[in-house]
Amino acid sequence: LLAVLFKSQHQAISLEVYIILYHTFYEPTLLKYLEEMSAAKEVLDPLLHSLFVKDKKTKQGDPSPLSVLNQLVKDNVIRSEAVQSAFNSIRSAVPAKKAPPTGEKTTNKSAPKHRYRHVALQFYYDGAGYSGLSQNVGQDSDQSIERALFEALMRTKLVESRETSGYSRCGRTDKGVSAAGQVVALRLKSNIPLESKLENGELVTESDLPKNESERIRVSVPPKTGNDSHVWKDMVEYPYAKMLNGVLPADIRILGWSPVSDHFSARFSATTRTYRYFFVKRRLQLEKMREALELMVGKHDFRNLCKMDVEKVYNFERLIHEAEIVECPQDGICYFQILGQAFLWHQIRCIASILFLVGQGLEEPSIVKELLNIEENPGKPGYPLAAELPLVLHHCGYPNLHIGYSSQNLWSVSCLMEQQWEDLVLSAARVRNCIESLSDATVSRQEVLDFVRSKLQDRQKKRNKHAYTVSDIDFDNLDEGLADEPIVTWGRASNWMAQHRDLYPGGQETAHIPLLQRSRGTTYEEKIDALSKSKKRQQKYEENVVKKRKSAEEDAAFYEHMTKQGGTGI
Asked: Does 99 score more than 50 pLDDT?
């Protein structure tokens, strides 16, 4: 491989560059990068600066190993996460040098002291009190899930830093959004000493390490002093979940973990993501919502059902495998569940907003077809996002990843969550009790009629203003259906308002303008043209989209490779 790659059988190459290329090589047309590389000195990628990757001199005219690696990173042929992971693998795999003779000082301060292994963590979090999953590194005001996670990782000394951990995540959830099965991957410190040996005398490698915290491995442990001999021990891995849950906030819980292959990426190795959006049924027409949701199944362009970020995304086609609406047995709670390959920014919340318009009878299910038809509707009509708190990243799916769990940890997490659930249910019961107690309050029949007349007149004015709907309110017979008594209970009055006048708490208060008659946002093409007016935005677009764009064949090869990665904690 090296002879072909560097056009020389006598090429001198540093250990770091060799291992990184070995670990990250999968591109079959790698030679084209050698042919296209300029003889001019390349600006070294900041990642390679931060890793202190060393280089070797080459024959005049030949590209150096480091310049090749730099070009591969620059062209996004190999990912920065893979480079960091490979580099960490080298540092944890190379044995420490022998101690110098007594009295001789050593200058090697970078020799690894601990073994690190690539691990996938599955965890839960309640996003209500956080600014989102993604950390704004360097911002003191950051209140992200990742900040809390890495503070716990540093406190338990499982990582040295975020930058050297080879960190990757599956789904980037926004402010207020929760997760029941988020997955991240990174290199964590192992309990098995770096220079421990197996019974056959060979050094322990990452593939020999325990797959979970209950599996034991018999190893000879290096002596603590030069006079001691190796000691044989039956060792287990660190209980990662227990360690982290002991220092994490109560609304973030590690559920389980699994060792994973070096190339595994929590993002690119995932083949499915499942989201759930919870809501209260009330007067929503669920069958119409189901009809609308079914129209989204399959591969469609969802640019009208997301927030377009053209500086990072150019392809708005997404594949939805399954979608359904589920009615829960308790207190009118429902949720819709969508299982897809990947999702766009705010896609689920946009879908929720459209479904609620359909459920309220303000739009027909066919509006989904119209929004998915980008030839007829290239610009997104204006409509608000659905609330963020009811949204949950329910599950991240991997074809070759099997998370391992411990009974003790699941018991602890279950006890904590049951207590949290009980507190919230009792809180909801207290509110429900107050609502029901209002039913016995009494009001004047005439005052009820005056209130309803005022509400309906306001609604009529708003509708007439836009002239999209014709009022059919009969003010002469406004009291039809209301008990003919001077004093009525609020319970009877509110039921009458809901049944006969379509007035109820949580109902539509503003006039509805049909979506297709609303003003449209800028199209994708218009947004791209606008980038030329900002040098900074244009640069971001070129770095994130133009330079990283690949052919369908290259994408297929990349994802075929990534989805084969994984591991098992069972």
From this structure: no
Helix (H, G, I), strand (E, B) or coil at 275: strand
Q: If pLDDT is split at 50, 70 and 90, which confidence band does 36 have?
A: very low
- 187: helix, strand or coil: strand
Q: Which of 177, 127, 517, 514 is nearest to 354 (CA)?
A: 514
Measured distance CA(122)–CA(566) in Å, rounded: 13
Q: What is the pLDDT of residues 179-194, one digit of tens each?
A: 999 999 999 999 999 8
C-alpha span between 109 and 230 (Å, rounded) = 24
CA distance 564 to 79: 16
Q: Bridge-partner residues for 179, per DSSP? A: 125, 393
The count of residues in the chain is 570
Per-residue burial over 135-173, b = 16 or more CB atoms within 10 Å of its CB, e = otherwise: beeeeeebebbbbbbbebbeebebbeebebbbbbbbbeb
Catalytic-role residue among 55, 174, 208, 484: 174
Please tell me whether residue 368 adopts helix, strand or coil conformation.
helix
Q: Which of 13-22, 47-56, 68-77, 141-150 has the lowest mean pLDDT?
A: 47-56
Q: Is 401 exposed, middle or buried (0-12, 13-18, 19+ CB in 10 A)?
A: buried
- Residue closest to 344 by CA, chosen among 310, 377, 371: 310
> CB within 8 A of 502, min separation 6: which ones?
none
Q: How big is the CA angle at 311 (ends 306 and 313), to the nearest 5 degrees?
A: 50
- The dihedral through the CA atoms of 181, 185, 189, 195 has a sign that is positive
Task: Round the average pLDDT of the chain to a whole number and report it.
Answer: 84
Name the residue with tokens 């080298």. Answer: 90
Q: Where are the beta strands (DSSP E) in 143-201?
A: 168-169, 178-189
| Count of other CB atoms within 10 angstroms of residue 72 | 21
- Burial class (CB within 10 angstroms; exposed 0-12, middle 13-18, buried 19+) of 110: exposed
The answer to whether the beta carbons of residues 177 and 171 sit under 8 Å apart is no
Contact indicator for 172, 133 with CB cutoff of 8 Å: yes
Give the pair of three-digit tokens for residue 184.
């991240």
Give strand pairing partners of 265.
none
Taking every pair of Cα atoms in the chain, the longest distance, rounded to a whole number of angstroms, is 106
**75 counts as catalytic:** no
**Checking DSSP bridges between strand 442-444 and strand 487-489, what pairing results, if any?**
antiparallel
- pTM, whole model, 2 decimals? 0.79
SS3 203: strand
Give the lowest-confidence range in 18-32, 435-449, 474-488. Answer: 18-32
Mean of pLDDT values over 285-305: 97
Cα four-point dihedral sign 21, 24, 30, 35: negative
Question: Could you tell me which residues are beta bridge partners of residue 234?
Answer: 218
Q: How many CB atoms lie within 10 A of CB 558?
A: 17
Tokens of 244: 């982290």
